[in-house]
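We now fix the convention by which a protein and its fold are recorded. The integers have meaning only within a learned vocabulary of local backbone shapes. A record is reproduced here so that you can trace the correspondence yourselves:
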Amino acid sequence: MGSTEIISYDLNLYVRKTYRFVEVVVVIDYGDVVVGIDVVSSGVKLSDYRYALAVLKDGTMTVYDDVGLGRLIRLLWELKPKLIALDNIMELGGSKKNVVKIVKLLPPESELVQVTLSADEFVDLRKLASKAGIVLEHGKLTPQKTAEVLAILSSKGYGKVLKLFEDRVKVVISRGRVPGSGGSSSERFKRGLRTSVLSAVKRFKEELDSRGIDYDLTFRESDGGIERAVFTIYTRRSEISSILRVVKGFNVSIRVKPVLKKKFLSLVSSNLTTDKFIIVGVDPGIETGLAIVDLDLNPLLVLSSKNLDREEILQIIRKYGIP
């Protein structure tokens, strides 16, 4: 279990701040929550990952020393931060697949900020901290301290907001239960499910129409109702959250599929391979230890995993640079 430490800072936060990032204008109100996240330990699977979380609100910093992915996501949904600040987007999950999986779980109201990214160029975190007047001790920053610095810097307008999703969402409405096979009672049950889907589709459509939200609708009809309907809705994911609560029912399944921006996917892909030089340490065996640092001896990865083969080790190393 990770511990929680509460620290008070005099951050000279104004009542209201407006910061212009590279592509997005973000307004920070006094009382808004800003969260910094850094990786404590990583691994091959997402379940191996542990994170440090620094929560900044009203000049007070709350630090969660060590949390797993599940608790991290739960905390973010409870806090609904205005900004989620990272050192590097790839640190969230280590691979494109994992990063995409995680960002789809984040609260739609939150903006993701890569603090070390400026005009598509990486900037050293210590240099940014010095520029912002933050005095850091010499030596390696702990993940907890890094998370604190990320939260403070993002609250002061440093970094780039990563636009994760298109202003377009797909919502799939289908039956929520699987009918049994055979018999007239089974057919009645199927018709009842289709009727439930039809009712949910009508209700959802009415809610969209009443709000003036633009959408496309395709559906597959069947005896007694609708088997499946797909809404393509041209708005932000956060705009439809309240509507979804209205139409959910026991016999109906509603799945929301946010559409990731191609530019964001390109940014993630560009982080997978880098031409920077790194130092790698490997301790082979049944349980392999792997450590990667940059030329300034800043740790990039520390993991221990069973049954890692040579190719898997090389794939991990390539994500961080050239050894």
